[in-house]
Amino acid sequence: xxxxxxxxxxxxxxxxAPVPARDEGSAFEPAPATSPxxxxxxxxxxxxxxxxxxxxxxxxxxxxxxxxxxxxxxxxAEREMPVLAKIRERFAAERPLAGxxxxxxxxxTTETANLVRTLAAGGAEVALAASNPLSTQDDVAAALxxxxxxxxxxxxxxxxxxxxxxxxxxxDRHPQITMDDGCDLVSLLHSERPGQLSEVLAxxxxxxxxxxxxxxxxxxxxxxxxxxxxxxxxxxxxFDNRYGTGQSTVDGILRATNILLAGRNVVVAxxxxxxxxxxxxxxxxxxHVVVVEVDPVRALEALxxxxxxxxxxxxAGWGELFVTATGNRNVFRREHFExxxxxxxxxxxxxxxxELDLAALRSMxxxxxxxVRPGVExxxxxxxxxxxxxxxxxxxxxxxxxxxxxxxDMSFANQALxxxxxxxxxxxLGPQVYTVPEAIDQEVARLKLLxxxxxxxxxxxxxxxxxxxxxxxx
Length: 474
Ligand code: NAI
Known about the structure:
Strand order of the largest sheet: 3-6-5-4-7-8-9-18
Oligomer: single chain
Distance between the termini: 70 Å
CATH superfamily of the largest domain: Adenosylhomocysteinase-like
Number of strands: 18
Bound molecules: 1,4-dihydronicotinamide adenine dinucleotide
Helix content: 40-55%
Number of domains: 2
Radius of gyration: 23 Å
CATH topology of the largest domain: Rossmann fold
Structural class: alpha/beta
Strand content: 5-15%
CATH architecture of the largest domain: 3-Layer(aba) Sandwich
């Protein structure tokens, strides 16, 4: 693990943080590899402009000079996040999180910045690390430090050691609430810092893979504090996983490759919330879509939604573009790569970079790997070339900007309201995984409709009575 150091630094107008050398081997243009180490201490007032403040909070980000660009993008996203804005307004008045230390491990994007601002408005002290080495938007990380005074530890393209050093930097701040996207912070606290667990009141988890890991911990009796599975809110997975990932996965693949989807054979592995969204958007752009599933109900659903269903082995020779969204590992592996046709493109939308067997791909290419264009590598295998997008990491964040803010508005409204709920009720909860209280889910949907100017049809008294009366038949 890389050790993070601190050092004084003057901003703005003074010397900037050193910009790390580019990782020449990366397929990505803006990808500094490892942390050069130095960070610094003391903060501008959270949420403040920082113009007259000479000192900054602890951080490890790529380039503080990007802060202004980050602020512009954060404000652009804010326009699409009216539910979170409403919550922020109330939090600022009521301060329900006053003094609460929150350690967050989330994708460092414009939407996350708006969530962090909301938590800070509620009185929380938030520290943030990236939840994926390739998802950080460096301008946002810089803005969080220089403009909003949030200790932030994230560099796009950071190596594994730096990724974990950044998580440790957040853990060093002794969080009372953890906010995870993939369960890495919870896992680090439980495995490496058990002494700190008694300080943690509770946590939240953003994604399916993280919830699966947490449930496994709870089943093992290993989980030591309560965690709310934000992913399980209806106003989260029905929209974020489906429409957010559906659109942004297409966005990432197109930005990286600029291929035409119309008429292309696309294989979607996994027909969960994410897979459904990807399949629908691919089909909407004219692709022929085949779904691969291991679950009989989901396979049937895919069939009746109008897709063909095949095994991986069958689909391998048919597909031209393969997208994984299973939360599982080695979904496409050696035997499938062998059958794939020349020019096939591989991308992953699942949380971890384990869905495509990258070790097999590398070993089959025997060193014949080239950077084809930003975000795309070519693997020469037995007279054909297979193309990998975004290093097999989640393609919507690795090759595009992640979900549109309008959908993250609901996911992060659930996060903010769940943290408020935990601040009040954590002591009443045991070390289990909890669903988001239904009242929060309903409130998020209600606020979103309100912001969209859409009115709900109210039930009449007669209808209400009818629904509650089991005696009335035909
Ligand atoms: P889900 O549990 O609803 O769906 C996963 C599906 O994959 C299930 O239907 C399962 O039967 C199927 N599956 C499992 N192993 C398979 C295999 N070997 N071959 C074919 N199908 C298989 O999960 P959800 O919500 O769709 O999430 C999928 C992944 O995407 C997770 O890792 C999640 O964390 C991640 N995710 C990524 C986002 C992003 O921004 N890229 C956003 C939201 C979720």
